[in-house]
Amino acid sequence: MSATRRTAWMLAPWILAMCVPCAGQEARETDWKSRVTVVRAARMLDVRSGRITEDPHVWVADGRIRAVYWPDEHSVPIEFGATYLDLGDVTLVPGLIDCHTHLTGTLEGDFVHRSVHEGPADAALRGARHALLTLQAGFTTVRDLGSAGFADVALMRAIERGDVPGPRIVPAGHSIGISGGHGDETGFRPGILVGGPEQGIADGPDECRKAVRLQLNYGAKVIKCVATAGVLSFEPSVGAQQLSREELEAIVDEARRHGVKVAAHAHGAEGILAAVLAGVDSIEHGSLLDDRCIAAMKERGTYLVPTTYLADAIDLANLPPPLREKAERILPLARENLAKAIAAGVKIAYGTDAAVYPHGQNARELDVLVRLGMSPIEAIRSATVNAADLLGVDDRGEIARGKLADLIAVPGNPLENVRALEHVRWLMLGGRVVDLPAPAEPPAPGGRLTLPAVKEGTGSGKR
After folding, report:
1. C-alpha dist (Å) from residue 450 to 120, 314, 447
2. Which of 27, 263, 264, 410 could make an S-S bridge to 420, C-beta 3.0–4.6 Å?
3. CB 370 within 8 A of CB 418
């Protein structure tokens, strides 16, 4: 670098600092979105190339990334009124994306009977707290797959208005499934919480089409269907197919006509295969997928959203015995089959099923994916560019010109230790810096901080 350019880069922070408007009337009248902010860090992760670059300067305006500069490639661009943020010894990473959350839910307390005693307003208020925890964990976009009473839609709108802080939400409304199936309220006497297509309970292709239309009418941005039985419901099977091939095809066809994607909850192989052949965009969980499922998913480009960290983190003691038995039986198999899918090259998009374990721990899924065969950059791509592709958006998932200014900063090098992404030090959402809680105190002398360990092939949990 020439002496002139080197001097310019050394002076840039001071020049930019002097350009910051004073705290007078002009500053108060300037909308934060229109201000130019320059974010500098020691390192940046380019998720496309899989490389760490040094000394990036990311220019942000109007909620988007205007440009990315490096001192050894460009002269110093100066803009009047710009704010300069030097984050120091951290790595910039694009805001993470979780494709499978339930922000309004939790397994704390008597979750089995919660829907009898509480309504959508309770869920939305609970979801506001969980949304903040999720955002502070570095997740700037989530796909929320199933919430009663369209509480997820209400939460999305509240966040968009600025009423409450949280990530960008792609809501599903109600999951669509058969009467008495995993998506239904099971285990109660007749007449309690009986639902129809508006609540996602549909039998036959015509009702399935109506259920899709009603979810979209009330604000859903993605459709979730329940192709098989599951864990957190009282039917005896975990993987039995529930929606028929004809019903699945009707759901996918109706969603496609509205330009909306479809996610399919599916544990058992037959239901997974039927959903893939019907044209769904993603298989959620995929616990018992086999070679046929893997081949079909690769041929059609269907994503797997595995939700596997929960196997180490859920509170089994809080499950009713029938649900606990299913969880202990299915989760070890899910881990084994996920490792096979990764090795076979099935496309993976990041999802956690947050609610089954505490919200805010979403980034711990990354370490499990690496332990099961993914490289750190592949795991990170699953939560950035892959997740954006699954959502059908091209405005996020990487730090590049024109993308949303959704950025996080983490210590160290995440390509060397992916768990660095569990420790977000700084966060920007749409060009606005988000306050984060103070880092946890280090353990006292003689003690140590412990996190749930990954037990490959022996995890136990539920979903």
Report:
1. 36, 16, 9
2. 410
3. yes
Q: Give the C-alpha separation, 225 to 356, whole Å.
A: 18
Give the model confidence (pLDDT) of 24-78 as tens digits.
444 443 455 568 999 999 999 999 999 999 999 999 999 999 999 887 655 555 6
Burial (CB < 10 A; 0-12, 13-18, 19+), residue 393, is middle
Single-letter amino acid, residue 347: K
Which tokens belong to 287? 């616990």
Q: What is the pTM of this model?
A: 0.87
Q: Which two tokens stand for residue 231?
A: 């864990």
> Which H helix or E strand runs over 241?
none
Burial status of residue 453 (CB atoms within 10 A of its CB: 0-12, 13-18, 19 or more): exposed
Handedness of CA 315, 318, 322, 325 (dihedral sign): positive
Dihedrals phi, psi of 158, to nearest 5 degrees = -65, -40
DSSP secondary structure of 87-154: --S-EEEEPEEEEEE-TT---SSSGGGHHHH--HHHHHHHHHHHHHHHHHTTEEEEEE---GGGHHHH
Annotate 382-442 with DSSP letters as a single string: HTTHHHHHHHT--SSSS--TTSB--EEEESS-TTT-GGGGGS--EEEETTEEPP-PPPPPP
* DSSP-assigned letter for residue 41: -
Side chain identity at residue 247, one-letter code? E
Please check whether residue 144 is in contact with residue 170, taking contact to mean a CB–CB distance below 8 angstroms.
yes
Spatial CA neighbour of 181 closest among 214, 144, 228: 228
CA distances from 367 to 138, 203, 377, 425 (A): 15, 40, 11, 19
| Distance of alpha carbon 100 from alpha carbon 286, whole angstroms | 13
Strands in 168-171's sheet, in edge-to-edge order, are 96-101, 139-144, 168-171
pLDDT, tens digit, for every residue of 164-191?
Answer: 999 999 999 999 999 989 888 877 778 7
Contacts of 459 (CB under 8 A, 6+ apart): 308, 311, 312, 331, 332, 334, 335
Look at residue 15 and give its three-state secondary structure.
helix
User: How far, CA to CA in Å, does 339 sit from each of 98, 304, 317?
Assistant: 20, 12, 27
